[in-house]
Amino acid sequence: MMRNRTINFAKSDARPEDIKGTIGVSDRFADPKLKKAIAEQMRAPQAPAAPPGADGSPARAEDTEGTLRTKRDVEDVLTEIAGTAGRFMRIPRTKLMPTPAAWNPFSQVSQEKKVLMADSICRTGLQQPIVVRSIDEAGNMYQILAGNTRNEIYGVLYELTGDEKYASIEAKVYGYGELTDDQAREIASDTNYVQRAELSSRDKAYAIHTKVEMLKKNKVAAVLDRVAEQMNIQRSSVFYWNKVFSLIPEFYAYFDEGRIRLKTASRIASWPPAIQKALWERRDFLTDDLILKIPAKTPYDQIIPRFEELLDISTAPKKELGHIQSVDVQDRTYTIQAEVDRPDDSEVVVLCVPKGKMKALQRAYGDFLIK
Q1: What separation in angstroms does the CA of 281 have from each of 91, 182, 251, 275?
Q2: What is the pLDDT of residues 175-202, one digit of tens each?
Q3: DSSP secondary structure string for all residues of 221-268
Q4: Phi, psi (rounded to 5 degrees) for 107
Q5: pLDDT of res. 46
Q6: Cβ distance 238 to 231 under 8 Å?
Q7: Furthest-apart CA pair in the chain: how many Å?
Q8: Domain locations in the chain?
Q9: Of 98, 213, 255, 324, which has the fewest Cβ atoms less than 10 A away?
Q10: 71: Cβ–Cβ under 8 A, 6 or more apart, which residues?
Q11: R_g over Cα of the chain
Q12: What CA–CA distance (Å, rounded) separates 239 from 154?
């Protein structure tokens, strides 16, 4: 059931004359090695289990806070965006055109996963129909909104087997005028988000940013809350990921490697590209703590000087507070001899710290600990 969404039906901006190359397969998905790899896999006596979501089935993934969440499935997405419109039917692949490139900047599925998808489709059939919309009143041409890779695999299977069942494909079809271009774009983004078992930081940021922008455009109230509800993530994560969309490409890989945290990436992304590039040149010295000590609203001309200042402070030789001379343990009683040169505004305290809290204590008060 649709909620809080204004729908203004409009003719599609997709045109059959925009199609270049072979009908039914985007050049973006052309892979000369894929046919050979799929053929070899089909000859194998038994295929390995396909990864979650590889054939379009619902998948589970971890959100940014580390809690396991169940993703929405495709039908949830389609109902949220387009209500009960659309119907299921088989579409000849010669009538299909790919998703517009501007709507589909997601990373390509690896060849290994494509091979497993092909094996699953060949042995058990298509688990999740593709999603398309008609771009002419006669129904002569359809634009793919979800399922470019599945369509590509059908083409390879048709070439390998000659089986006519791969000349057409099962699809959820929206008729001409049933979707606005905004709704179509939202479907293209959201279905990628729910169907992929793994998303790069760039892909996830794009999907969440697109969702935020579409809801804003439709004047939906409490946008961050709605996106959090629909995408099954926390509101704070929506806020951070929406900002991460503006991250320069160099930092995306850095983020994916776990070199910086989500909050740090969003802070960097809130600054102009020129400043991000200047920070990237200093990446060998960049840490989460340094970046988060620079407020997001710091005047742009002060960000790099502030970073340099914090770096100088963090790398300057520190005066030793003292040292432990001896520790004597008898019957769980500790006798500690220490020489301490404490600052005037501090107290000397001996703590028993749980092991799980030690790192947090060191991060916050490392300069004041005598090891």
Answers
A1: 51, 38, 11, 10
A2: 998 998 999 999 998 888 888 777 889 9
A3: SSHHHHHHHHHTS-HHHHHHHHHHTT--HHHHHHHHTTSS-HHHHHHH
A4: -60, 145
A5: 60
A6: yes
A7: 90
A8: 16-230, 246-315, 324-368
A9: 324
A10: 58, 59, 60, 61, 193, 194, 232
A11: 27
A12: 38
Tokens 């990436």 locate to 265
Kindly tell me if the per-residue pLDDT of 68 is higher than 90.
no
Taking 80 as the threshold, does the pLDDT of residue 340 lie above it? no
Query: What is the end-to-end Cα distance of the chain in Å, rounded?
Result: 61
Rounded to 10 degrees, the C-alpha dihedral 65/196/73/88 comes to 170
Inform me whether the pLDDT recorded for 6 exceeds 70.
no
Bin 183: left if φ > 0, else alpha if -120 < ψ < 50, else beta: alpha
**Burial of 265 by CB count in 10 Å (0-12 exposed, 13-18 middle, 19+ buried)?**
buried
**Would you state the pLDDT for residue 19?**
42
- Average pLDDT along the chain: 81
Whose structure tokens read 């369509």?
151
Element of type H or E holding 324: strand 322-330
**pLDDT band, residue 112 (cuts 50/70/90):** confident
Q: In this structure, are residues 189 and 210 in contact, taking their beta carbons and an 8 Å threshold?
A: yes
| Token pair of 198 as six digits | 């793994």
Contacts of 268 (CB under 8 A, 6+ apart): 247, 251, 260, 276, 279, 291
Residue located via tokens 């963090």: 314
CA angle centred on 126, ends 125 and 131, rounded to 5° = 160
User: pLDDT value at position 71?
Assistant: 56
Which token pair is 122?
Answer: 């060949």
Determine which helix (DSSP H) or strand (DSSP E) holds 170, and give its type and residue range.
strand 168-174
